[in-house]
Design brief:
Elements: H1 5-27, E1 37-43, E2 54-57, E3 60-70, E4 78-84, E5 95-100, E6 107-112, E7 125-130, H2 134-166, H3 169-223, H4 225-244, H5 247-270, H6 273-280, H7 283-304, H8 306-309
Parallel strand pairs: 1-7, 2-6, 5-7
Antiparallel strand pairs: 1-4, 2-3, 3-4, 5-6
Helix pairs in contact: 5-6
Length: about 325
């Protein structure tokens, strides 16, 4: 079957018209090939929101802004049409919030889902909210701090002026000198800390050697644990034996003996008794010396004149 030229032209015209209509609506942010729902929100200020700006639910884009116009009552309110291309259920008490998506101020609408059991139907008007811009948030955070800083700087400036008026030149020089001394003290402290650091570094090796020796001693104790236990046991046995023995009686006997010996020595020192007379009286010494001298003379005389004392007779 041969298609006529007129039929081809008509078909091309219809396809072109369809594409033209679809492209026009697509540029307007509407997709006629997708089932969509449109909800509305009323704002006193849209803060730079425009058509084709995205609509998000929990960060996911589900539609876009398709309509923007003033309220017919001309009260200044702006009505925004939100076309949702998703079947996600939207509770009736959900809130449409205009917010910034980046630092450049690009706007979007975020749907904060409510908790109502009833779902919003196409054409319903949702509650609206305008989020603070980044600059407004910064101003809200920094503003009070800025005011406090300005007040503080003003007070400091006033204090410095009053201080400058109250201090004389000599006092200013004295304060400068104090700061100079403080700087010198800090330098000395830094030098001292460096010296201490050097000393610690030098003594580190000695400390390590001491720790090694302590570790060696501990190891020796561990290796001779049985011998140490035996020594301690023997010492404990000796202490028990000493406790059981009559040490107090022995000590009393020793003390008595020492007292008796002390009395004997006192008597000897006083010249009492034979030993005392011998040690303290020199008469006996002189008599013995005289006897020894006479004995020597006798022996010498016998040696020189033996015939005087020994008579030999043969017949």
């Amino acid at each position: 079957m041969k298609i006529s030229k007129e039929t081809k032209i008509g078909a091309i015209f219809i396809v072109g018209a369809v594409l033209l209509i679809w492209g026009y609506n697509f540029l307007k942010g509407q997709d006629i090939l997708t089932r969509s729902r449109t909800f509305y929100a009323v704002y006193q200020n849209v803060s730079g929101l425009g058509k084709a700006n995205p609509v998000f639910i929990n960060g996911m884009q589900v539609g876009q802004v398709t309509q923007m116009y003033f309220d017919p009552s001309l009260n200044g309110d702006i009505i925004i049409g939100l076309t949702i291309d998703h079947d996600f259920p939207i509770p009736k008490n959900s809130i449409a919030e205009i917010l910034s998506t980046d630092l450049m101020g690009t706007k979007a609408v975020s749907l904060h889902l409510g908790s109502a059991p009833e779902l919003a139907e196409e054409g319903d008007t949702l509650a609206s909210k305008l989020a603070a811009t980044l600059s407004e948030q910064v101003e809200e955070t920094i503003g009070p701090l800025k005011k406090r800083t300005e007040t503080l700087l003003s007070n400091i400036d006033e204090i410095l002026i009053n201080l400058n008026d109250a201090l004389s030149k000599e006092q200013v020089k004295s304060i400068k000198g104090s700061f100079t001394l403080l700087n010198s003290s800090l330098k000395n402290a830094d030098t001292l800390m460096q010296n201490i650091s050097g000393f610690v570094s030098e003594e580190k090796s000695k400390t390590q050697e001491i720790l090694i020796n302590l570790e060696s001693i501990t190891a020796n104790f561990n290796n001779n644990n049985e011998k140490l236990t035996e020594i301690i046991t023997n010492f404990h046995s000796l202490s028990d034996t000493l406790v059981k023995s009559n040490i107090s009686g022995t000590l009393r006997s020793v003390n008595k003996s020492m007292a008796d010996f002390s009395q004997i020595m006192n008597k000897i020192n006083k010249g009492e008794g034979s030993i005392g007379q011998l040690l303290n009286n020199d008469t006996l010494y002189l008599e013995l010396e005289k006897s020894s001298r006479d004995l020597n003379l006798l022996l010498e005389d016998i040696r020189l004149h033996p015939k005087k004392y020994v008579k030999l007779s043969l017949f």
